[in-house]
Design goal:
Two copies of one chain form a homodimer. Chain A is mainly α and about 300 residues long. Chain A has a single domain, classed as Farnesyl Diphosphate Synthase (Orthogonal Bundle), CATH 1.10.600. The first copy, chain A, contains 16 helices and two strands. The first copy, chain A, has a two-stranded antiparallel ribbon. In chain A, a hairpin with a 2-residue loop joins strand 1 and strand 2. In chain A, helix 4 crosses helix 10. The longest helix of chain A is centred in the last third of the chain and has 28 residues. Chain A is globular. Chains A and B meet through helix 3, helix 7, helix 8 and helix 9 of A and helix 3, helix 7, helix 8 and helix 9 of B.
Chain lengths: ~300, ~300
């Protein structure tokens, strides 16, 4: 019986169509994001917020949140406001990172960056507006979730984006720019905070909304930290190997900026190996969940396989 | 008996020492703010956040929050994390407003602005960090308050600072700069959003934390909207009549920037009259609360009487 179950799970694994799954979820998320932010007076700020929020992207964070809500026995509906909030926070961090005073990027996802279209002042405010709205959206729009769980989500989102998360990672990243002697420890700090923290928040928030047991939340947290770091290593690799067209942003920028990256410390081959090893560890955390964890398994594989 | 009570209340009114009350509350708030944000790695961002958060100021928003918590039968302890969050949000809005891409101010509260000391990139991130931390702080540090009330606080704070509040007001303010034909309606929109929204959030949040009845929350909301607008009118008046030393920031800046202000629409005398009328309406809302509303009564009077 156990054997049959395993064979079935394995057969289902091989049949699991990740791209169709991602496309379906992406459509749901796009529609929810579109509905979340109607344009009212003063129109300019809502248009600026929507310009970046609806500029495409993989919607990986919302999709992870929805996936773990379902994994833990919850619904898409109860997780959707948090899923949207995660994308609002992610978008805010991109808008502010792209500013002239920060990374000074003109393009993002193949489109002009927010400040190139709306001006620096509006771009700063659009980021602030998205960050504030993320918390309001979770608090006001979440249905059928007990208030104490939502409060925990607010704490997790706040921590993931603040000085203990994204902001802290960005500060160390800015400090490290142009330095040729950045240690692996510092590089790990940057990416654990700039990338992995919000991915972890995405993964555990869905499970928490659905009332998952604490040991399962911890398991998912370890899964997320592993794929988060793998994601960044692959990003660094792609910055060297992919073309600008594939990336939708300036390629080779890290090299030009003399930025410390995993390939600059480990070389390309070792970087690929480390990413694969992290993905293997991530997937091992999912074993207990069985077949319902197939989307998370496939997403882990997808991270190392992606070309942009 | 009623008569005696009224006489007593009136005697207490005349004896109420607002400056001692404000000084005592300010000390409590300063200590709580100081404790709320220890410096850890990466030190620079925490130092930047603390530089502006602990740069003085009247602490009016936290004090209002603490006052209405007590008015509604709550404690200082249950309101303190929200009181600190209000000051974090206020500070964030000042840091971002002062940026070169916005109002381009070099001084604030008599000290160099955040970006003049830490650079633009860190100033943007310090604002983001304070905003995110405000929500985390309410969610994690609030004690003895039911989760559903805290969730309502999160929604109120998010709305007060986002595009429906502060950010929206700042956008219209930026759009109106240099225009000589700004309507009273637009000026009211700017200040109802830039100033009154967060003051209202401060006033109602304390009462909500303490479990006030909805009619009392509404009464306090009207009180707050009135003092919020009066506060701004007085700010505009002081920009013309006060010295730089009294203000701790560049005086006469509105005139130089050809900014629409209440005095520029109404003249000084009518502006003073309107502010007094708003304060009278604000105080009328407090009548039902009796003697326990004395601090709020005195704060309303203080707003028109202040010289900086």
């Amino acid at each position: 019986m156990v054997f049959t179950d395993e064979v079935q799970a394995s057969q289902q694994d091989s049949r699991f169509d990740l791209l169709a799954y991602l496309a379906e979820r992406q459509t749901l998320v796009e529609a929810a994001l579109d509905r979340s932010l109607p344009v009212i007076y003063p129109q300019k700020i809502y248009e600026a917020m929507r310009y970046s929020l609806l500029a495409g992207g993989k919607r990986l964070r919302p999709i992870l949140c929805l996936a773990t809500s379902e994994l833990a026995g919850g619904t898409l509906e109860m997780a959707m406001p948090t899923a949207c909030a995660l994308e609002m926070i992610h978008t805010m961090s991109l808008i502010h990172d792209d500013l002239p005073a920060m990374d000074n990027d003109d393009y993002r996802r193949g489109k002009l960056t927010n400040h190139k279209v709306f001006g620096e002042d509006i771009a700063i405010l659009a980021g602030d507006g998205l960050l504030a709205y993320a918390f309001e959206h979770v608090a006001v729009e979440s249905k059928q979730v007990p208030a104490d769980r939502l409060l925990r989500i607010v704490a997790i989102l706040g921590r993931a984006v603040g000085a203990a998360g994204l902001v802290g990672g960005q500060v160390v990243d800015l400090e490290s720019e142009g330095k040729t002697d950045v240690s692996l420890e510092t590089l790990n700090f940057i990416h654990n905070h700039k990338t992995a923290a919000l991915l972890e928040a995405s993964v555990i928030s869905g499970a928490i909304l659905a009332g998952a047991a604490e040991c399962d939340v911890q398991r998912l947290s370890r899964y997320a930290k592993n794929i988060g770091l793998a994601f960044q290593i692959v990003d660094d690799i792609l910055d060297i190997t992919a073309t600008q067209e594939e990336l939708g942003k300036t390629a080779g920028k890290d090299l030009q900026a003399q930025k410390a990256t995993y390939p600059s410390i480990w070389g390309l081959e070792e970087s690929r190996h480390q990413a694969q090893s992290l993905i293997k560890d991530a997937k091992a955390e999912l074993a207990e969940f069985g077949a319902p964890a197939r989307p998370l398994m496939a997403i882990a594989d997808f991270i190392t396989a992606r070309s942009h």
